[in-house]
Amino acid sequence: MDPMERLLAERACERLILDFVHRLDLGEPSSVAGLFTEDGVWRWPHDGRRVEGRDALRAYFGSRPADRLSRRMMSNILVTVTSPDTARAVSYFTTYRVDGYEGGVVPAGPPVQIGHYEDTFRRTGDGTWLLAARTLHLPFGGPTPRPNLPAAHGS
User: Which first-to-last residue range defines the signal peptide (predicted)?
Assistant: First the structure.
């Protein structure tokens, strides 16, 4: 693989990482399923959660509360191309989130989650890179607050 092909593969995978969180935060959450291969997997080993296949991913991410406001910050994205058609990545994330959002500005509080993703990618026959698997690692997490509750109840 020449350096330009490697660079383009890395950028395509980085773009998937960012597109994923933009769709969750600013778009239609169920649409993240389209960023995965047909047999793609999302998992959270902490509680044994595993969601496999685009239909299941669409239902899982589409079940998020309609009144959820979230913003994720992504950083330390490191993509490693492992072959012309496969890659892996590690990226850090911080999530700010509230449920019960009705508009306006919500007072900033601490993040609800801080963790990292481990991703594997596969290039399809038409040259498109997709997520084959995404694993969530969450060493810092707490409940999602509701802005209409006192701070003591939402933390």
Answer: none
Q: Residue 59 corresponds to which tokens in the numbers above?
A: 């239902």
Rounded to whole angstroms, how far apart are CA atoms 51 and 95? 21
pLDDT at position 45 over 70: yes
Residue type, 74: M
3-state helix, strand, coil in the chain (%, to 5): 30, 40, 30
CB neighbour class for 65 (10 Å; exposed up to 12, middle 13-18, buried from 19): exposed
Cα R_g (the chain), whole angstroms: 17
Query: Structure pTM?
Result: 0.90
Residue 116, SS3? Answer: strand
Who's near 152: CB < 8 A, 6+ residues apart? none
DSSP-derived pairing of the beta strands 49-52 and 69-83: unpaired
Q: Are 29 and 61 in contact (CB under 8 A)?
A: yes
